[in-house]
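Slide 14.
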Amino acid sequence: MSLAVTRNMIGLLRPYSHSFYQHSRSLPTHTKTGALRGSSNTSDQLIGRSLSDLKLYQHSTSSLDFNTGKGYGSGTSFYVRAVLIHFDELDVSNHSHNPTIGPGINIVEVDLARRDHLTNAFKKINLRGTVPVLSVDGEKITQSDEIVRFLVQEKFQLNNGAQELFFSPFRNMDQQLDRIYGSMVSFTNEKQSQNVPAVLNNVAKCMQQDISQKVRTEYTKNNLQAYCDGMEEYLDQLLDVFNKGQNYFCEFDHYHFRDNLLKQIAKSQLGFKFFGLMLHTERYAMDLTNFPKVKYLFTYLSENGVYKKARAENVKGMSQSFFDFVSK
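Slide 15: predicted structure.
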């Protein structure tokens, strides 16, 4: 690819680019599933199904740094793994199970570097060739949010109060916090959807161009930079609410409500989503100096036990490889 074409590609793929959105909007919002049936399943359609056979197809094997021993992989796979570990540890009835990967679920490792996701065997599981995928007695859920909603409602059977603490922890505490939290979740979803290889491949196909690894890396870094910038502003808004004393924790000093806020985020949907995306900043050794609040939150979550267990390097070897799975 020529330098001029590469520059055009980079310009096209920048987050917030009109051309980027024009092409990315053509992606389907739901993956066609159900092997060759071509139908879509959501968590609602599988409510009440038997949970005797649950398989999670996920990715955690690529990009292992031999110097640090840290691994990466799919951010959305991290999100689902972390939710499994989080709620498994809260359920005292599951002590006999392995808490690292969640009880009663077979974990199948889809190695994207080995191109497992492009094989005919995996295309029968998910025609789009993306992870994660949850198989519920043969039926498939292919969107991470739908997977998590199914697990929360059916696998762990959380009551409404516990679900609310996970999805909307500030709803009954403070209206401003709840609004900002919701905006942060939406913004994280937007940036995560722009960070997946399927988006890049779709743009490349529309342009009839190949995308080099250098261009992919630059696009990813630009997207992450935009995410950090936006999240820094949202965290500033949270602090502004604190400073005005207009929140649920107003009877405590400033540092106390910061701790309470961080604890709430760490146990919420936002925390797991945020961390899964931010792992890519670590992967590319991005400098977060200009985003002190984002850096502080990422560091805080990095020290949390659940987040540590869900990291790719800690689950590698605890799941069955897709190659071995289909070879049976």
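Speaker note: The chain is about 55% helix and 5% strand.
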